[in-house]
Design brief:
Blueprint lengths: L2 H13 L2 H8 L3 H15 L4 E4 L2 E4 L1 H18 L1 H8 L5 E7 L5 H14 L3 E7 L2 H9 L5 E5 L7 E16 L20 E3 L6 H13 L5 E3 L5 H9 L5 E4 L4 H4 L6 E5 L6 E9 L6 H12 L4 H5 L8
Parallel strand pairs: 3-4, 3-5, 7-8
Antiparallel strand pairs: 1-2, 5-11, 6-9, 6-10, 6-11
C-alpha cells in the first residue's frame, strides 16, 4: 500500500463514481479502477460495492475512509510543519481563478495578500468554476475565486463581487448608436456558450432564463473555447452574455466588430466568491491567512467605477 493508492481510494469514496473520481485525479478511468482492485487485493477485502453508474462503500471501505483521510491530512501537513520551523521558507498557495473573475478582484486580492502575508507565494491556477471546485475539495487548490453561489458541506465561501450581465453581439446585427438591448431583440440569433460542465448550475439557470424570453437556438462549444466564442459573435453567427466589468470574456472582444450592451428589463449578474475547503487539516494556517485576506477585500471603489463598455 502507498499514499497514491490511498488518495485514489479517497477520491472514489468521496465521488461515489469512478468517472468523476478519475476526472478529479486528472487520469483515465481504467488505471484508476485497476489501482483500486490492487488495493482491495492487498487489504484482502472489497472496499466498494459496484453498481451501474454508482458505487457504495462496503463496511471495510467505510471503516478505512476516515483513517485514510487522517493519514493523508497528516502527510499533507508535513510541509507546513517544516515551514513553520523555518520562518525563511516561503509558503506556496495555489489560487484557483475562473475566467470571468474581474481584474479588480484578482489584482486587489493578490496585492492585499502580498501586503498582509509576504511569506505566501501565490500560484494562479486558471480553470472553470466546476473543475476548480472539484480540485478544491480534493485539496489540490487552497482557495478559489469562482462564480457562485457555491454550495456543499465541504466548501465555505464569501461573496466578493457582483457584475451586471450584458449582451455581446455583432455590431452589424444592431442599429448604430444603440446603447442597450432586450432579450426579445435576440430571438432569431443563436446563443453561444462554452461547455455547460464548466459551471452546471449557472448554465442551468441561464437556459431557463433564455427559454422564458423565447430564445431557443443554442451553440455549445467544446471545453473552455472562449476564442471560438469570440469568432462566432464577431462574425454575427451568435450572441453571448458577458459581465459588464473587466472579466476575461469581455476582453476577448476588444478590437472586434462587437457591441457589448446592457440588457433592458433584466437584472442578471455574475457573482464572484472566494471558496475554500471547510475541513483541510494540515493546511489550516495557510488557508486561514488566505481566507482572512479574501474577507478583508474592499471592492467598493471598483464597483462604483465599473461602467458598461461602449460598443466596439
Amino acid at each position: 500500500m502507498d499514499l497514491i493508492g490511498l488518495r485514489y481510494f479517497v477520491a472514489v469514496a468521496e465521488e461515489r463514481n469512478f468517472t468523476r473520481a478519475a476526472a478529479r485525479l486528472h487520469m483515465a478511468e481504467s488505471p484508476l479502477s485497476r489501482r483500486i482492485k490492487d488495493l482491495e487485493r492487498e487489504f484482502g477485502a472489497a472496499l466498494f460495492v459496484r453498481a451501474h453508474h454508482h458505487i457504495e462503500l462496503t463496511r471495510a471501505g467505510a471503516a478505512l475512509l476516515p483513517r485514510a483521510l487522517d493519514v493523508l491530512e497528516r502527510v499533507d501537513g508535513l510541509a507546513d510543519v517544516v515551514r513553520e520551523a523555518d520562518a525563511t521558507t516561503p509558503r506556496q498557495a495555489v489560487i484557483g481563478i475562473a475566467p470571468e473573475v474581474s481584474a479588480t478582484v484578482r489584482d486587489t486580492f493578490l496585492a492585499d495578500l502580498a501586503a498582509a502575508h509576504p511569506d505566501i507565494v501565490p500560484r494562479l491556477y486558471p480553470a472553470s468554476t466546476e473543475p476548480l471546485l472539484r480540485d478544491l475539495r480534493a485539496g489540490q487548490v487552497d482557495l478559489a475565486l469562482v462564480h457562485g453561489p457555491v454550495g456543499g458541506a465541504e466548501v465555505d465561501s464569501r461573496f466578493l463581487e457582483r457584475q451586471p450581465v450584458g449582451v455581446a453581439v455583432g455590431s452589424d446585427l444592431i442599429s448604430a448608436g444603440r446603447t442597450s438591448i432586450t432579450l426579445a431583440d435576440l430571438t432569431d440569433i443563436p446563443f453561444a456558450s462554452i461547455n455547460h460542465d464548466s459551471a452546471p448550475e449557472i448554465y442551468r439557470n441561464l437556459d431557463d432564463l433564455l427559454d422564458r424570453h423565447g430564445i431557443r437556438k443554442r451553440i455549445t462549444l467544446t471545453g473552455d473555447n472562449f476564442a471560438g466564442l469570440a469568432h462566432l459573435v464577431a462574425s454575427g453567427q451568435a450572441f453571448t452574455l458577458v459581465g459588464l466589468g473587466n472579466g476575461m470574456a469581455n476582453r476577448l472582444f476588444y478590437g472586434e466588430p462587437v457591441a457589448i450592451l446592457p440588457i433592458d428589463g433584466l437584472r442578471a449578474a455574475i457573482t464572484t466568491v472566494a471558496a475554500w475547503r471547510s475541513n483541510r487539516a494540515g493546511a489550516e494556517r495557510l488557508v486561514a491567512d488566505l481566507v482572512t485576506t479574501a474577507e478583508a477585500l474592499d471592492l467598493q471603489a471598483a464597483a462604483s467605477g465599473m461602467a458598461p463598455p461602449a460598443a466596439r
